[in-house]
Amino acid sequence: LLRDKFREFSRDTGGLGQERVDAANAAAAALIAGGHPERAAVAQWQAGLNEAWAELLELVATRAQELAAAHDLQRFRRDARQVLAQLRDKARQVPEELGRDLRAAEGLERQHRAFEHDVQALSAQVTAVQEAAARLAAAYAGPRAEELRAQEGAVATAWAELRARCQRRRRLLGDTVEQFRFLRAARDLRLWMDGMHLQLQARERPR
To answer: Tens digit of pLDDT for each residue in 168-186?
Structure first.
């Protein structure tokens, strides 16, 4: 809000002020060119006005830069908080359930692949926060730079922890699916062997 208001102030000041300065310079130039008896004083006034106008423009530019920097800082703080909240929320959504049978485990494995795809979409936001922190840290020192590093560090840590939890769950689900597949194959094999055993017992024995 301050930046928008100041942008309007700067535009109005620059437009109106430049017109008035140009008019004053034209009047001074006419007096000096016309040989006015006070032309030396007029020239001094003209120089003073131009110097004061240049100082005012510099102050306006400096204020605009300060507001832009403050806007970038506040936007970084907001973005870092939002991304951190999203990462922590996603981390809480990683379940511990692995499934009680093959069908359930395979279903959970498919769900987890979709979940990891959603998680990966957050990488762009994490990268944006890290890049903004690096850019802003170069412009600040002391406590503010430490604050920037701390916020970026919290986001990076949460991102690493979320990916680690996803990788761990993917591995556990993969192990669970393989275990159930083995158990099913072993059960089928045992049933087949039992069937063969029964057939052998049913055959007529030689006399």
So the answer is: 999 999 999 999 999 999 9
